[in-house]
Amino acid sequence: MSARELHLNAFLMGVGHHEAAWRHPRTDPHAHDDVAHFQELARIAERGKFDSVFLADGVQVMGDVRHSIAHRFEPVTLLTALAQATERIGLIATASTGFSEPYNLARLFSSLDHISGGRAGWNIVTTAGDRSAQNFNREVNAEHAERYQRAAEFLDVVTALWDSWEDDALVVDRESGVFADDAKVHEINHKGRFFSVRGPLNAVRSPQGHPLLVQAGSSEDGKAFAATWAEAVFTAHQTYGDAAAFYADLKRRVTAQGRSADDVKVLPGIVPVLGGTEAEARALADSLDDLIIPTRAVRQLTELIGVDLTDHPLDERLPPLPPVSHVNGAKSRFELVRDLAEREGLTLRQVLRRLGGGRGHQVVVGTPEQVADHVELWFTTGAADGFNVMAPLLPSGLEDFVDHVVPLLRARGLFRAEYSGRTLREHYGLPRPVSRYAEVVPV
Q1: Which residues contact 279 (CB under 8 A, 6 or more apart)?
Q2: Which of 73-77, 179-183, 318-322 has the lowest mean pLDDT?
Q3: Strand, helix or coil at 50?
């Protein structure tokens, strides 16, 4: 193994990450609501010794119900089923600080950590867009900066709740009738701008102390938040230069917070379109892109960047986009799309095909050796600590990656052959947090 260990996360989405995956003959479009399908995906990733599997989420119908699979399971519920089908792989779910309460969310992830034996992770999102807000008694969403202010306080509360039972609070003495040492169970008595929470949590401290904290925003506010809280960051980049700049910037921010740069793992998304030859891989990529429904894709892009493109001609270049300061949605994804279109002079149709595979994550088309070369370059030269693997078709794309790319990464000394730990924190090489309420014993 190299001095650093590559980290791999399997991002599971329906029957594949390509927006036309459900139309492709190599998938079963009915599998998206079959728990057995997701259990099998988790077992495939565990066979490959991936660190974790990840489920995204949103609190609105995503996309176009006429032309795309709009249904998705609530992720924490689904991950409890995956926990029963696997033994070692980590289980990461998205949950929003914008449309949740800290107490409820702390219980959900504590429960998942207990049920899985210490394999839970929380992907923290603030949720952009007004449509989500309109499902929660609001007409418009909060401003970008305010969403991150709420998220910071949310994390203060959740981590305090996870700490509210000290590790040795349980006594369970039948003779005396003492179940727990009440001096080691703490009300947190939080009163802040957004939340008032008494505590304690009605769940004992979980195996990891705190489930792994993951973050997926790459805006300025997102990077500042990640530097304080995140232990892994899922990010999207189209070029090596952008990825390397983001990596260096985030690591600087982390160390400025008094943390070690190794405390945060950066995992860009990669959509590997694999073939036995480069021509076979390109043919698969083209067959998928040819199934894109333009009207549906335009609506999705409009929603993604917050600029209405429904009347823009498909074969004309994208119109000038507003400054990012005018955007109240996903700022980093807006900048990615804008920069891609401007850098390459793309028409709207070309942008739709470029984004169809992974919504802005880099699509790598080629042989297993070419994909392994890409992973090795980014990992060894300061652009990534690992990758968020987004198979275009599921399960076949994940099986191909596990069976043909992972062995190459192992042969190059980059990736594990077996798990060395049992918890998700151990997979990521991260310590178990000490409860803030525990008495510090002098050494």
Answers
A1: none
A2: 318-322
A3: coil
Angle at alpha carbon of residue 71, lines to 70 and 77, rounded to 5°: 145
What residues are paired with 87 via a beta bridge?
A: none
DSSP helix, strand, coil percent of the chain (3-state; round to 5):
40, 15, 45
* Phi, psi (deg, nearest 5) at residue 403: -85, -25
Beta carbons within 8 Å of 384's beta carbon, 6+ residues apart: 243, 247, 266, 267, 268, 375, 378
d(CA 229, CA 395): 33
Q: Name the E strands within 228-310.
A: 232-235, 265-274
Q: How confident is the model at residue 384 (pLDDT cuts 50, 70, 90)?
A: very high
Burial class (CB in 10 A: 0-12, 13-18, 19+), 350: middle
Which residues fall within 8 angstroms of residue 77, CB to CB, at 6 or more apart? Answer: none
Euclidean distance between CA atoms 361 and 369, whole angstroms? 20
Q: Do 14 and 394 meet the contact criterion of CB atoms below 8 Å apart?
A: yes
Alpha carbons 278 and 273: distance in angstroms, whole number: 10
Maximum pairwise Cα distance, the chain: 80
Question: Which residues, at least 6 apart from 442, have a Cβ–Cβ distance to it below 8 Å?
Answer: none
98 Cβ neighbours under 8 A, 6+ residues apart? 125, 126, 127, 132, 133, 141, 142, 147, 150, 151
Q: What is the mean pLDDT of residues 318-345?
A: 74
Q: For residues 393 and 356, is the Cβ–Cβ distance under 8 A?
A: no
* Sequence-ordered strand ranges (E) for 153-211: 170-173, 178-180, 190-191, 196-197
CA distance 183 to 414: 47
The helix-helix angle for 35-47 and 75-85 (nearest 10°) equals 60
Burial of 47 (0-12, 13-18, 19+ CB in 10 A): middle
Query: In this structure, how many other beta carbons lie within 10 angstroms of the beta carbon of residue 337?
Result: 23
3-state secondary structure of 218: coil
Query: Do residues 213 and 229 touch, judged by C-beta distance below 8 A?
Result: yes
